[in-house]
Design a protein that fits this description.
Layout (H helix, E strand, L loop, with lengths): L2 E2 L10 H13 L9 H21 L6 E4 L2 H12 L4 E4 L4 H9 L5 E3 L9 H7 L6 E5 L11 H13 L11 H6 L1 E5 L19 E5 L10 E5 L29 H14 L2 H21 L4 E2 L10 E5 L3 H10 L2 E2 L15 H5 L4 H4 L2 E5 L6 H12 L2 H4 L2
Parallel strand pairs: 1-11, 3-4, 3-5, 5-6, 6-7
Antiparallel strand pairs: 2-8, 7-8, 9-10, 10-12
């Protein structure tokens, strides 16, 4: 019996999702740019998905752009806007950090607390009159720590439009309105209720669905028009006029259909009941492991499915788990296969001799109580070997 614990990297679609997806595509297989009935039906699927996403996140349907995934979404907003004086947390995903570095501009990196959280106050203190771009993830893909992005977004919206007394000294409302605040919500989407992380202060949001049971190869960028000042988004690709000339090429209808089905599930109480059950399993594992390992994931203010810790011989433990059909990872999937020091743990001040032993367990909705018991039994047999 296998146990898959790498859902923050990718989460397999359920059989039910694939069956529903096939039904949708059978009726909407036309090219969305074609004027005939099949093309119009495909275009209708795209628009209805844009509308649903926009309503949940406080955007307009025409502000939703579909792309190949979260990496393209984050690259698009950074390379498309080309900020001159950006602020970024030091724990962002590489698809944020690397495009920022490629601009060869001075970047103000904000380090997290010991719990891996970048605070609203630190972000406010970092803004200067030159700042034109700020980026912060909603939740970290390695530690699962939930950042204070909503708190900062709410502050930004009020300071921009409602209460000028909130504007930090040395800044103006016009400046706050002109800078761009981008959030990477890829790990938060589907794991944290919308009301707990969305904000009208976000100028752009990147999303993906393959972390929560959607297909791979599809992402979305929600880009607000009214609050990005004079900044103009230049597309990364050139070609046809699809998606208002912001992302050319025939739309990925399979991916958009999957997005639509997943988003429909997120509107149901049953989805969040499963997430609540997942949090109970995760908290149980946290309490079970915490006395014996170096825990990086906070117990609170954390994704409901993520545990990140280090133990003696962690890399060997991952191999032993793999041989027992328990599939976990050393950290970010983007660095799997290469033993690199985690930039997230380094920014948290974790010594390399500890961080090199890191293990991430990220549970999915298919995780069940009998798997929890098997996992605990397996880990209990290893605890005497893995304690630091």
């Amino acid at each position: 019996m296998e146990i898959y614990l790498d859902h923050n990297a990718t989460s397999p679609p359920s059989d039910e999702h694939l069956v529903h997806l096939q039904k949708v595509l059978k009726g909407s297989y036309g090219n969305p740019s074609s004027l005939h009935a099949k093309g119009r039906k495909a275009q209708s699927l795209i628009y209805s998905t844009q509308k649903a996403l926009a309503q949940s996140l406080g955007f307009l349907p025409q502000e939703v752009i579909f792309l190949s995934g979260g990496t393209e979404a984050n690259n698009t907003v950074i390379l498309g806007l080309k900020p001159q004086y950006p602020i970024s947390s030091a724990i962002e995903h590489p698809c944020i950090l690397k495009p920022l570095e490629s601009l060869k501009r001075p970047i103000n990196y904000i380090n997290p607390t010991l719990l891996g959280i970048v605070t609203c106050e630190d972000l406010k203190s970092a803004i200067t009159p030159e700042t034109d771009f700020i980026t912060l993830m909603i939740a970290n893909n390695e530690t699962g720590a939930i950042q204070e992005a909503k708190l900062f977004g709410d502050f930004l919206h009020k300071a921009r439009w409602e209460d000028p007394s909130l504007v930090p000294q040395g800044l103006t409302q016009d400046h706050l309105r002109s800078l761009h605040f981008h959030v990477d919500a890829i790990q938060a989407y589907g794991k944290i209720p919308f009301t707990e992380w969305t904000s009208l202060g976000y100028d752009s949001v990147s999303l993906s669905i393959h972390k929560i049971g959607g297909v791979q190869g599809i992402g979305a960028l929600l880009l607000r028009k009214k609050t990005s000042g004079n900044q103009i988004l230049n597309p990364l690709l050139y070609g046809g006029p699809q998606q208002r000339n912001r992302r050319p090429g025939t739309e990925n209808l399979l991916g958009i259909a999957s997005f639509s089905l997943i988003h429909e599930e997120l509107q149901k109480d049953s989805w969040w009941q499963q997430i609540s059950q997942l949090r109970e399993y995760r908290d149980h594992l946290w309490s079970f492991l915490e006395p014996h390992v170096h825990m990086f994931s906070p117990q609170k203010e954390c994704l409901p499915n993520t545990l990140y810790f280090a133990c003696k011989g962690g890399e060997d433990l991952i191999l032993e788990m793999d041989m027992s059909q328990i599939y976990a990872t050393a950290g970010s999937a983007c660095s799997s296969g290469v033993q690199l020091e985690s930039h997230v743990l380094k920014a948290m001040g974790i010594p390399k001799e500890i961080s090199k032993h890191a293990i991430r367990l990220s549970l999915g909705l298919d995780f069940e109580e009998h798997q929890l018991k098997r996992l605990e039994k397996f880990l209990w047999g290893k605890l005497q070997k893995i304690i630091f």
